[in-house]
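Page header: ASSEMBLY MODEL / two components / 483 residues total.
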Amino acid sequence: MLKSSSQIPLGGNIIKPGNSSEYKTGNWKTFSPVWDKDKCAQCLICPVNCPENCIPVKEGKRLETNFDFCKGCGICSQVCPFGAIHMKKCQTS
Amino acid sequence: MKNLNKNKYQALIGGHAAAEAMRQINPEVVAAYPITPQTPIIEKFAEFAADKKVDTEFICAESEHSALSATVGASAAGVRAMTATSSQGLALMNEILSVASGLRLPIVMPMVNRALSAPINIHCDHSDSMSARDLGWIQIFCETAQEVYEYTFFALKLAEKVLLPAMVMQDGFSTSHNVEPVKIYPDKIIKKFIGQYKPKYSLLDIKKPITVGPLVLPDYYFEIKYQEIEAMEEARKVYLETGKELKKITGNNYPYFEKYKLDDAEAAIVVSSSSAGTAKAVIDKLRKEGKKVGLLKPILFRPFPQKEIRESLKNLKIIAVLDRSVSFGGEAPLFSEIKNSLYPLDKKPLLQSYVFGLGGRDLFEQEVEEVFEELLKNKTGQVKYIGLRK
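Prediction written out in full:
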């Protein structure tokens, strides 16, 4: 939910440190990655190539993309050797 | 001549009157670059700094862009910071002017009006400050050295309350280099009036780390600019409150504009700064001849007091607005403001635009008298240029 003028610190100052994770950039994307778990071999090439570091890895396996921060650059789709990620046009809101 | 108390009055040029106010403010940082006719302000203040009459860190910057940038940095760090400039100096600061207001830093800058190049010229007109009128700075135009002195610490108090920067204008040479008797109030009283500065945010407060000046994209930029719009509106109210407070010390009024023999006038001139003094002399003369003439001298130009000016001008038959700057291809800035102010009236006074004094050309009493003579004929037309050889 975007804040109104009176709720924002004056002059756009950021008055709380370490809060960049609160600034969601996921709505920048035009295309969104669709991950096909069946085709995925868990090679982990996509998480290391993701420039936004938004493909989480847990216990040696990648999980679903964090769409709050994925900007839809499509690099994961490009680097996947198994064709397990394709880019789908986002619906305009 | 008034009988002046030597203990209270000093013979000061306008530039030194601004420096004297800066001495009493005692800002933690002053960063400046010399430019005629601002030089007496900064020379005098540098003397105060060298003589340890102030505690200021005085920074000789390598340009006005750097001077205002250093002032912005110091102000963001959480201290009182000032600079001063003129003409090309203000033009070079242009990029940082909107940074200062956008970051809501209450920087006060004495400004000595001087014509913009080219052709290069060192004398007074208002083209410099008019080019900065839309950048979120409070703008106050002074007629005399006394006004310069008082409005400098007045502006500081106002700026710190609404968190907007303010520039306090005086006319190059006519005010900045002419000696006038200036009543100086005791340091203690002025220091008490301005009070201790408590910054809202401070970059150097390591217990509360902040980021100043982050990137703000279309989702928030508009909202942050709206804060500035609201602060400017708030400044109207705070200006009057600050004036009431300062009146308790000085006994003077701090209105949005000065009315001189205006209330029963039929024809009036609107002119700001030192030229208002010339207009007053002419009005005194014409009043003795029974002519109903008056003056409105705008002091606060940003925010512009439209409503109050409309109330003061609504009963006049005819008004001449004398601008000391032009807007090439448009109406002169002050004329445009006055015209806009009168728009809601059903019965509007007639209006005539005059441009005068570009590049420091003097405005003589005879010329002001001719303006009134023209006005009293109740005829208006195209913009007129006083003293111009076409």
